[in-house]
Design a protein that fits this description.
single chain; 462 residues; two-stranded antiparallel ribbon; globular
């Protein structure tokens, strides 16, 4: 017998169907994780191959964010006009193309173009996947299911860490510098093709369909997911919500309540990157190399980051709908600040040996663990919940654009900060941001746990 979810009214929907839909959509999250992980491994090799300066290294790493910002805007416009599914299919196709282009790059220019196209795909997928999942998930499971996107991110990153380390350790440094990084980039075609092929079989977002007047089709999807009686109640709530919404983005964004929602979402987007996570993710091998270990050994150590991500995202998924958003984000920010200050202290000593290497590894893993327990998935959950249906795609694109803008400055500036002010002060700066985030989560962020999207919108209007 098919496992089901029970609603408050005792009705049942297909749990297996919900999980299958969410898992397919979440593959899009693995593309972002795969890209972030592949760069961390390939960076040490292609930078030597093309004789890059530190500024060029930062640009090639960070230029993805510029493409992603464009992808965010395209995704928001496209999703509110053609639907959520076409955006995901397009993202899968673009990431496939970019992986191939990066693998065959003969010049830095081609490498940059490949990174920009990859950014377009990442911007589209990272904007639409959490939004889509939030619109199809039952309210009581929404935090957990939206977090599946972050779990896919962690799995994608860990997978490519293993791929990177395998390629690097099976071949000589000279071969890796000439060819190894190409195979690292090319491996990204695998998850991209899987996402591209499977996405067409999942349903369109029922909230989007209601907004387009396709009530019968939307009702069938809700019924299959939530059960007949629950679906009927939810559809009535969605229709009432849509009747009070304007189609104009700017007009809707500056309505009472929505202004506050926009502020909350934009700050959550920026803060997620100011934790320093993307710097640690992109440059983990460089951080470990500063302790004196070799390039290949640093890639193996980096696998630990991916494993920790998977474990703690899974824990986050269990507790996000039990403890709520505020507690996890507040505690997580405080813990990340402590981990970063500990790293700053260790690097300030400047004497690296086996003990120091272990302590740095522990500090990096602790920061990663607390990030995944809080802001890693929490920011995406908040951003996917707070906007009206008619503008949710475009509003989410503004949040994703903000996130990638912050990501660009962090990834562009981190290598220069390391060489300019040193690792210690670099980690102190990120720790200060984490303390600001702790205050924000505790004092400003409203709790949205357990509420339908329409109830959240009504609360913000109050």
């Amino acid at each position: 017998m098919e496992k089901s979810t029970s609603t408050a009214t005792g009705q049942k929907g297909s749990f297996k169907y919900i999980v299958a839909v969410v898992l397919i959509a979440a593959i899009g999250g693995s593309l972002f994780g795969y890209d972030q992980g592949v760069v961390s491994g390939a960076l040490s090799f292609f930078s030597v191959h093309f004789s890059m300066s530190q500024a060029t290294v930062g640009f090639v790493s960070g230029v993805l964010a510029l493409g992603a910002m464009v992808g965010c805007v395209v995704a928001g416009w496209m999703s509110d006009r053609t639907g959520r599914k076409p955006v995901m299919v397009t993202a899968g196709a673009l990431f496939t193309i970019s992986s191939l282009l990066l693998a065959i790059s003969q010049t830095v220019t081609i490498l940059v173009i490949g990174r920009v196209i990859s950014g377009l795909a990442i911007g589209m997928a990272s904007t639409i996947v959490p939004l889509y999942i939030s619109e199809v998930a039952p309210a009581r499971l929404r935090g957990t299911l939206v977090s599946a996107n972050q779990l896919a991110f962690a799995i994608g990153m860990t997978t490519v860490y293993i791929v990177n380390a395998t390629i690097a350790n099976l071949n000589s440094t000279a071969w890796n510098t000439a060819m190894g990084w190409r195979f690292m980039f090319g491996s990204g075609m695998v998850p991209a093709i899987i996402f591209f092929v499977l996405t067409p079989i999942i349903p369109e977002s029922p909230r989007y369909l209601f907004g387009r007047g396709k009530d019968d089709k939307a009702q069938k999807i809700l019924t299959r997911m939530n059960g007949a009686e629950s679906a009927k109640k939810e559809s009535n709530t969605i229709k009432q919500s849509l009747q009070g919404e304007n189609k104009g983005l700017l007009r809707e964004l500056f309505k009472p309540g929505v202004r506050f929602a926009l502020m909350i979402a934009l700050l959550a987007a920026a803060f997620q990157q100011l934790t320093g996570t993307i710097a640690v993710g992109y440059y983990a091998p460089i951080i470990f190399q500063k302790t004196g270990i070799g390039t290949n050994a640093s890639l193996i150590e980096t696998i630990g980051i991916g494993v920790v991500k998977i474990i703690f995202v899974a824990i986050f998924m269990v507790y996000i709908d039990k403890l709520g958003r505020k507690k996890l984000l507040t505690w997580g920010a405080a813990a990340m600040a402590i981990a970063l200050l500990a790293l700053a202290l260790i690097f300030s000593i400047g004497k690296f040996n086996m003990l120091m290497n272990i302590l740095i590894m522990v500090g990096v893993l602790a920061h990663t663990a607390f990030y995944e327990l809080s802001w890693g998935g929490g920011a995406w959950v908040i951003m996917s919940e707070v906007f009206p249906t008619s503008i949710r795609g475009r509003a989410q694109s503004l949040c994703s654009l903000t996130m990638f803008l912050a990501s660009y400055f962090v990834s562009q500036g981190f290598p220069m900060m390391l060489s300019g002010i040193g690792a210690s002060w670099t980690f102190v700066i990120f720790a200060i941001f984490c303390l600001i985030m702790m205050w924000f989560a505790a004092k400003v962020l409203p709790e949205t746990n357990g509420k339908t999207l329409e109830e959240i919108q009504a609360d913000f209007k109050k």
